[in-house]
Amino acid sequence: MAKQQERVVRERPAARERPTSERYERYVGGSPEAERVILQRLADDLMRVQLKIKERGGASGIDRTFHAKAILGVENATLRFHDSLPQELRAGFAQPGAEYPVIVRLSNASGARRPDPAPDLRGAALRIQAGDGEAHDLLMTNHPVSHAANAREFVVFARVMAGADTTVRRAVALYVKLPRALGWATAARMRRNVLAGARREVRSLALETYWSRSAILWGEAGPVRYRLRPAAVSPAVPAPPPWDADYLSHELATRLARQDVVFELCVQRYEDARLTPIENGAADWPDADVPVVPVATLTIPRQDLGTAAARAAAARIDQLAFDPWNTTDAFRPLGNLNRARKAAYEASSAHRRGRRFVTPTPRRNVVVGALLRGAFGALNRFVPWHRLPTWIGLLNVATIRQVLRRENLFDTEVRQAPPRPHPVPPALDESLLVRRTYDGTYNDLSDPAMGALGATFGRNLRPVHRPDLFDEPNPVVVSRELLHRDSFIPARSLNVIAAAWIQFQVHDWVDHKRCPAGAGSVEVPLPYGMTWTNTPGGAPERVMRFADNEDLRPAGGTGPPILSANAASHWWDGSEVYGGDESVAKSLREPDGDASLRLENGHLVPGPDGIPITGFRDNWWLGLSVMHTLFAREHNAVCRALREEYPGMDEESVYHTARLVVSALIAKIHTVEWTPAILATELIDIGLKANWQGPPESWLTHLGLWLADAHALTGIPRTLPDHHGTPYSLTEDFVTVYRMHPLIPDDYELADHRTGRRLESLGFHDLQGAATEPVMRRTGLANALYSLGIAHPGAITLRNFPRALQAFEREGEIIDLSVVDLVRTRRRAVPRYNDFRAGLHRPRLRRFEDLTTDPDCLARLRDVYRSVDDIDTMVGLFAENPPERFGFSDTAFRIFILMASRRLQSDRFLTVDFRPEIYTPLGMDWVARNGMTSVILRHCPGLAAVLPRTTSAFAPWRPTRPEANTGTTHD
C-alpha cells in the first residue's frame, strides 16, 4: 500500500506539470496511426448499423446511430462560470463570471425513435458558444459509466443491438448475440451497465444527472470528467401516463412554461491511472475518492416550446452534428472511446446527411464469393480467364476484381493521427451539392480533400524503394536494346484517334509536376563511349539529365521520398478541358461571365508560346489539339442547348451544368467505346457496357449476379458512391500501366476527307509543340480527324517506342522519354515486373521463356537483365503476350479492372448525383444519346461517309478514294 501511495504522489504533480494527451493515453495497435485505421473500420461498421436501424424501423432516411429521438432542443440557454471558480480550473473559456450562450439537446439514447416509456438511457448535448470560431460540445448520458470499456466493445454492442426494437429481439441480442461476439464476462458487465441505467424510471429529464463517462483535458488542470446535475431540489413529478409516447417532451414543455430549468456543471479531476482511468470508459471515477467540483450553472430559460419559432429552433438543432472534438486543444477529448467518436461521429453524421455512403455486401455474396475465389483460383492455374467461355470468363473477371478491391488498395495520404480538435465545421455551401469544384474538392462531401488537386497518389502494391537499383541495369541500355523502334509495328484494329484519346484522358487523371529547369534534376549515367546533349545547343555530356518531380514527400515525415502529390485532380472531371483550378478555368471562358469556352473561328486560342490556352497544355501535338478542339466545341454546343431549353438559367449555372454533361459524356465514351476498342473481345464489351448501363437482360445473368455480386445488377451510375474501404485516389501503379507511348507513330500523312487527296506528310516533330496549331488551322478539324482516323497507332509492345520521343525537346530540355519512363517508375518505388504481377495475383516468372517465346526478345532480355526478377515493370508489360485481341497485357488489365470501375464508382457525380435534378433532363438525355461518333458528326458532319458503321470511332475509318488525277495532290 505504501508503494501505491508513493506512486500516486509522484504521478499527480507530473500530470499537473504536463497535461498533454500523451501523458495519459494508450493507443490500440501500438501507435496513433494503427489505431486510426482500426477506428475508421469501426466507424464504417456504425454506418452499417444506421442502415440496419433504418431497414428494421421502416424509416424514410438515415437517422443518428444513437440519441435519435430528441426530447428538447433550445438555442437560448446560458452557461455562467462561478465567480468562485478554483484557480487551478481557470483555463481558456472557463473563467470566473464568464457567461456564454448554449445550444441544448436532450434525447433518448436509442438509435430507434422508441416511445418514451420504453427502457432507455437519456442523453444531454451542449454546444457552448465561447466566441467567434470557438465552440465546445459536451456530451453526456444519465449513467455514470459506459457499457463499453473501449471502441471495439462500443461498436460490437451497437451492431448487435441494431434493430432490437422488441422485447424478444432485445433479449436475444443481450443474452445470445452479445456473449457470442464478446465473451460471457464482457457481455455480463455490459448488460449490467446498460440495464442499470435503462430500467430506472425517468419522470423528467430536468431532474436527471448526466455524466460524460470519458475524460477531457481541462487546460493545465489535466484530465477531468464532467457531469450535469439538477441545481436544486424540484417538486416530485407524477408517474407518466403509459399511453403517452412523448411524455418526456410534454413534461419539459409544461415545466418550461412555468419556470427556468437549471443544472450545475461539475468536474472531477484526474488522480492516477488506477483510480481515474482514461482508457476504460466502463470504469467509474468514484465520488468518495475523487471530489466533485461545481464550476458553472446552465440555465434553460422559461419559454413556450409550442411556438413556431421554438419548433423551428428544435428542428435546426436536430440537424446539428454534436461532436466532442468540436473544441480547442486545451479541452481535447481523451481516451479510446473519445478517439473513436472522432471517426464515428463524422461518419454517422455524414451518412445521416447524405454526404457519405455505405453499401453492405449481402451475406449470400460473401459466401458465394468465397466459393468462387477458391474455384477460380484452382481453375486459373490451368486455364486463364480469357480462355474460358464468355459468361464464365465474366464471372472469373468479377471474382478477380473482388480480390483486387480487398487486397490491392492502399491509402497513402497522411492522415490525422492522433485526432486533433477543430472548430465546428461551417455550413456547407449549397452550390457544392450541384457543381463540380474547379480543383476537385468536395466530390466526397464528408472528406472534401479526397481526390482533389494536390492529393497524393495511392498504391495498388506495396512500394519497393531500392535506390541501389535506380541505375541497374542502366536505363539507357534497356531503352536501346528493348524499346527503340527500328520499324513501326502497327495496331491494326485501332486508329490514331485512340492514341490521342488516351493521352487526352491521362492528362485529366494524373500529373506529376516537374521541378522548374535548374531547380532539381535526375542524372542517369550513360554507357561507355556514349554522350548526350541535354539542352538545345548544349555541349555533349556523359550523363543524361532531366527535371525531377516536385513534391516528393516522405510518408508521415519519415521514410523514403516515395509519396507524390497529383498536380491534377484524381476525378474524371474534364480538367484537361476546363483547367485544374479556378483561375485557369475562368481564363478559358468567354469574357463577361459567358458560359462558353473561348474559341477563334472554332479553334483554340493560342498562348504567347504558340500552344493553345486550355486546361492542360503539356506534351502538345496534333492529336491533343484535335481532342481539345472537339470537346471545347462540344461544351459550347451543350451551353447553347441549355440556354434554349432553360431560358431562365443564369450563365454560371449553364457553365457548370455543361461541364458536368461533357465530363460524364467523356467518361461514358471511354468506358463503352475506347476500352472495348483496345480490348476487343465480347467479354470486355459486355463487361464495360454493364459497368455503365447494367448487365444484359438475361435471367441467368441476373441470377448469377444476385448470387455473386448484387451491386453489379445495375450500371454504376445507378448506385451509391463506394470507395471499397479506401479513400479514393489514382495510384502510382495505375500511372505505370498507362505508359502507352508506343501508340504514337513517328510519321503522319494528312489528307482531305472529301477527296482522299494527300495534303502533306509530316514527322512528329512537325506537328507538336508550337508547330501544332499552324498545322491544325491549315488542315482543319475535319481533315485532321480523318487523317488520324484512317491511320494506325503503334502496338504496345517491345521495340516500338517512337523514335521522335527518344530525342524530344521539352521545356528547355532534350529528353529520351523512354528512359524517363523507366527511371520515373523505378524512383517512384513501383515494384519490378515479377513482383508487380505476383502482387496482382498472377504466377511469378521462373525463367525468361515464361514471359515471351519470341527468340529476339528472349535474347535481348537475357543480355540486359541478370534474372527475371530484374525486369523493369514497363518492359515486362510490353513483352508479355496479351490475351487474344487485347491491346495490352493481362497484368496491366488487372490494374485496369480494379481502377476503371473505381473511377466511376467513387465519384458522386457519376453515381448518386448523376440525376436530372443536377444535370437537368436535357443533360441526362445528352449523355444517354451521344457517343464519340455523334460528337464528331455534330462538329464535322461531312465525316459521316467515312466513319465506321458498326464499330466505334476508334476503329479504322474508311479511306476516301483519291481523285483520279493525282497530279494535284501536292497543292
From TrEMBL:
CDD domains: PIOX_like. GO terms for molecular function: peroxidase activity. It comes from the Bacteria. Pfam families: An_peroxidase. The keyword Cytoplasm does not apply. Keywords: Dioxygenase, Fatty acid biosynthesis, Fatty acid metabolism, Heme, Iron, Lipid biosynthesis, Lipid metabolism, Metal-binding, Oxidoreductase, Oxylipin biosynthesis, Peroxidase, Plant defense. Residues 1-22 are annotated as: Disordered. Its cofactor is Ca(2+). This is Peroxidase. It comes from Nonomuraea composti.
